[in-house]
Amino acid sequence: MKKLKLLIHIIFFSKKFFKKPKKVQILLFDNIHQEIFENFFKNRSFDGFDIRFNEINLIILIKAIFHKGFRNILYNYSVQYIKAVDPEIVINFLDTRIDFYKLKKNFKKIKFISIQFAYRANKYPDIFQTLSQKKIGNLKCDYLFCFSKYVGKEYSKFIDTNIISLGSFRNNNYFPKFKKQSYKLKRRICFISQFRRQNSDRGLEQINKIDREEFYLPEKISLPIIQKLSVENNYEFGIIGCSKNNDNLEIDFFKGILKNNNFNFLKLKNDDDSYNNCYESEILVFIDSTLGYESISSGKKAISINSRKPYFDVNTGFGWPYLNDLKGDYWTNEHTLSEIKRIFSYIIKVSKNEWDTEVKKFRENILNFDENNSQLLKILKPK
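^ thats the sequence. predicted structure below, dont judge the formating
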């Protein structure tokens, strides 16, 4: 069925090109995040490779079919495309793409680099569950840049690679720029939204596999409590949106939860807005959003109500795989009134020095911070 869908997509929906791919020094595997890298690689020739068949290079497709037939067509198409471009480096920003790690064996002289894109856990149908279940062998890349050394150890169980604890590429790249800007810290507590429209293809695919009511139960119970506590402590309450094109649906979603309009909805107009809205807020609240983890790594005060866990057959909570404690000073796995009050009380009272100590431990063990991605730049430096 998958092969038939792919064939239909290629025939009827893909844009076709009949020309040789241009040779570049750096090739981005899967071009959906190409804009994030364009400035980062401004001194090197760089291009993206569409592996989703939205665009098809007919010359490469014909070569792939000629060499291997229609079997494993995506893999063979990728091999032929990389051969034609002949880059020094192939870089992957979607670390869950297992097909990327299968390609290295064909290219001994080309560096294959993978970068962790988002927070990972054994919580959802994520890469570690997939690799454990399918028992795929011979997966390799030269370097895998992870959020932390501990999540790197999890990757090392399945992928032959050199692990480097980088933290979040986007946060490392953006936060230093933001610090140079003039801004006013608002007395505001913001919840980081993970809203997705029905049948969304934008991450959180697990929402489409279970009941939405069940998935969003932590928000429905926690948010009215957080809003009430914020107002009682003289904070503005806001929600940091994550929908570029569906913000009305997202606003209505939260109005339905809160049963009022007494919140400031911060729209997402571009990718920078998410970080701006976090950095300008005094305190952040999140369930298990990557942006929440990035915010703590940046030094922001935040609490995590990591209570989606009870609705999945897993035992991982906040800060996996480093932390084993399901409750701590600023995180909990329960969305009860007493637990939310406990961590809320901690975060509004904790001193700057105490929080700085927490951030240091967080960076060392959960999500590193490497300003301007210096470790990655070192590896990418031309010989």
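Residues 148 and 364 are 7 Å apart (CA to CA).
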